[in-house]
Design a protein that fits this description.
The structure holds two protein chains of two kinds. Chain A is α+β, with helices and mostly antiparallel strands. Helices cover about 60% and strands about 15% of the residues of chain A. In chain B, about 65% of the residues lie in helices and about 5% in strands. The chains are: A alpha+beta, B mainly alpha.
């Protein structure tokens, strides 16, 4: 009896995972966005700026669909190869924290923006696609374009770059990263990222 | 016009992080030391004066009123957007801009309501710098203009042309257009308060974050959202 319960829940788990894997990239972005917006709309704590709840939302709903290693690699460009595997891991970890904080800040300023999904321009066998969305803000007549660059992986489609009005969140870090590495080495860059993340920590805890 | 200014206003943000200030030797930014000095001046002015005023404005006026004010200036700006689309040979866009001005000025009560967007006439972002870019003029060195913010040699020149075409200056009476000019600036800045807090969180070195973001955005605008893919976008190319 317990065995069959276990088997059933395992089966359910596989179905859930398989569904996420099979979802087309545009459908995936749409589902996640709608989920997150629904939570933002009803959660009073998030609207009040509760950093813990925003972080939880980002971690459970958004993080699993991002490939942070690739994002870090793009930001590092040719310096990626200068970093040892441990440094690469540490860089990815710090950069991830920074991006997640940034994303959380953006989510807490959400106010009834309307998000439109553009039709996907891709061939069925494409392994890299750009999912285009537009965010309409109440005070601005012109929508903000938000593009998700995604790659196909065995675990489903993953986002490896986000562009806001054509500005890539990841490549914008390239120059700063290159300068830091040139002047202070890969460890210097890791330290700067960690310091920036600690600063965010203090700012957040100061607010609550 | 206001498009440039709006974006420049985005970039006029209060900063804490000249920390890792270095001359990075970016080929797009040969004037970096000068630009950094102007940037930090702008940042200070934004922090002590412009942001507090914009916050006050946002707190004092209800959303509907602020949207009306934004729409009013956006409608005036659409005339110049239309002319720039004509200059770029984008006649479809230009006729939409024309339609916007007609509908918003009449049904939208002098531009206070944006009825055109919902009626299928989307707003475009054009200015003279983009028109020059469309015809192949490169952006030239990056340039930070005092108070106005990030620009480039091309877009700085474009901005001077935009200023001549600015309808706010065509309105009679110096006090009136000064008031309008300041109101527009505050309204634009207030719309960007959330964006500035996001950038504050994101930037490792604010100066280069603004510069690199701004250069990418201008390129994207020149190509109307579809810039050719750069080799640089692929991680192993550099």
């Amino acid at each position: 009896m317990p065995m069959s319960v276990l088997r059933f829940s395992l089966a359910a788990l596989f179905v859930a995972v398989a569904q996420a894997q099979e979802l087309a990239p545009d459908a995936l972005v749409k589902t996640i966005t709608q989920d997150v917006v629904a939570i933002l709309k009803q959660d009073k704590d998030i609207q009040a700026g509760d950093p813990k709840k925003v972080a939880l939302l980002v971690e459970t709903k958004i993080l699993p669909h991002f490939n942070f290693t690739r994002m870090t690699r793009i930001a590092m460009a040719r310096n990626w190869r200068l970093a040892s595997p441990e440094q690469q891991k540490e860089l990815t970890e710090q950069f991830k924290t920074l991006l997640v904080r940034t994303y959380s800040t953006a989510l807490s300023s959400y106010r009834d923006q309307q998000i439109d999904f553009k039709p996907l321009r891709a061939k069925p066998d494409d392994t890299e696609v750009t999912v285009k969305t537009e965010m309409k803000q109440p005070n601005a007549p012109q929508p903000v374009a938000i593009d998700y660059e995604m790659e196909k992986t065995p675990n489903g489609w993953k986002v490896y770059n986000v562009k806001v009005d054509g500005v890539s969140l990841v490549t914008t870090y390239r120059e700063v990263f290159a300068t830091e590495v040139k002047e202070r080495g890969v460890d210097g860059l890791i330290k700067s990222l960690a310091a920036k993340n600690r600063q965010g920590e203090i700012a957040k805890s100061g607010k609550t | 016009m206001a498009a440039v200014k709006r974006f420049c206003a985005t970039l006029l943000l209060a900063g804490l992080l000249p920390g890792c200030a270095t001359s990075g030797g970016n080929p797009a930014d040969p004037l970096e030391p000068l630009n950094r000095a102007i940037f930090s001046f702008n940042d200070t002015v934004d922090g002590v004066l412009i942001t507090p005023v914009a916050k006050g404005y946002r707190a004092a006026l209800p959303g509907v009123v602020r949207t009306g004010i934004s729409n009013f200036f956006s409608n005036l700006q659409d005339v110049w957007v239309c002319i720039n689309n004509l200059l770029q040979g984008k006649f479809g866009e230009a006729s939409q801009d024309f339609g916007r001005v007609v509908f918003n000025s009449t049904l939208g009560l002098g531009g206070l309501f944006d009825v055109a967007t919902d009626g299928g006439f989307p707003k475009h972002n054009e200015d003279f710098g983009q028109t020059l870019g469309k015809w192949g003029v490169g952006s030239g060195p990056y340039l930070v203009i005092p108070i106005i913010g990030p620009s480039s040699f091309r877009d700085g020149f474009g901005w001077l042309v935009d200023l001549q075409a600015d309808l706010v200056f065509r309105i009679d009476g110096v006090p009136v257009h000064n008031v309008l000019w300041v109101t527009r600036g505050i309204s634009d800045r207030a719309n960007l308060l959330d964006a500035s807090s996001i950038i504050e969180q994101a930037a490792l070195d604010k100066y280069s974050f603004f510069r690199d973001a701004w250069l990418q955005r201008r390129r994207n605008l020149v190509y109307d959202g579809y810039p050719p893919r750069e080799k640089e976008d692929d991680e192993d190319s550099r």
